[in-house]
Amino acid sequence: MLRILLGLLLVANLGLWLLPGPPAPAATVSAASPALVGRPPPPAPSRSEAYIRARCRALQATPEESRWQRIGWCQDVRQGLRLARRHQRPMLLWSVDGGGDTGRC
Predict the structure, then answer these.
(1) Which one has a higher pLDDT value, 70 or 56?
(2) What's the predicted TM-score (pTM) here?
(3) What span, in angstroms and rounded, lies between the C-alpha atoms of 101 and 104?
């Protein structure tokens, strides 16, 4: 019975591959591709060094926003439990996949 079901699934999947798909879209030319229509691309906006430095400063985290980086993080759970017991404080177990400074956890 199992062989029959597997055979039917295989035939059904092959049938889906053999069916004609939707027609390929025709090539289009948009305003986003000026090189295709013979016009030069628009000039890039001029960015001075002072502008770039100001933008970098504006995008940097403030000391208040980066307070969490001053926390004494432990590298392992046992060390955290020892410190929590010694200081009679709760322990926060924070687990992330990737960098913690990206704002996502």
Answers:
(1) 56
(2) 0.32
(3) 8
The CA distance from 93 to 105, in Å, is 12
Going by pLDDT thresholds of 50, 70 and 90, the confidence category of residue 103 is: low
At 82, which amino acid appears? R
What's the pLDDT score for residue 97?
73
**For 27-47, how does the pLDDT look when each residue is reduced to its tens digit (9 = 90+)?**
554 555 555 567 777 777 778
Please return the burial class of 98, using the count of CB atoms within 10 Å of its CB with bins 0-12, 13-18 and 19+: exposed
How far apart, in whole angstroms, are the C-alpha atoms of residue 23 and residue 25? 6
- The size of the chain, in residues, is 105
Distance CA 49, CA 9 (A): 63
Q: Which residue stretches of 1-105 are H helix?
A: 2-18, 49-59, 77-87
**Separation CA 77–CA 47 (nearest Å):** 48
